[in-house]
Design a protein that fits this description.
5-stranded antiparallel beta sheet; 2 helices; single chain; 99 residues; alpha+beta
């Protein structure tokens, strides 16, 4: 019974350490010049987000995949769009004001 308990404690410890390590992906993002964004991203925004302008963009690695987060603005509406390195739309994120 002792051995089973020890094994369970070790498994839980490994899971806790693994969960702590995977939450540090945000620190690898860097600011990207808007002119340096892939043409496919700019074309997609022009087509799907008519009237929006690109405010800022960042690039980085998430799960070994290069992604771009692009903040677009139209009046008071703000959207955060995520694209892969080929310029294919991945998802929309909720906008969170910077502190």
């Amino acid at each position: 019974m002792k051995k089973v308990l020890i094994v369970l404690v070790l498994i839980m410890a490994v899971m806790v350490v693994n969960a702590q390590v995977t939450k540090t992906t945000d620190s690898t993002r860097i600011k990207v010049n808007i002119d340096a964004l892939p043409k496919a991203i700019k074309d997609n925004i022009a087509k799907d987000y008519v009237g929006y302008t690109i405010k800022e963009a960042t690039g980085g690695m998430e799960n070994k995949i290069t992604t771009f987060e692009v903040v677009v603005v139209k009046g008071i509406a703000i959207e955060v769009l995520v694209y892969d390195k080929e310029g294919i739309f991945v998802k929309k994120l909720p906008w969170v004001p910077k502190k």
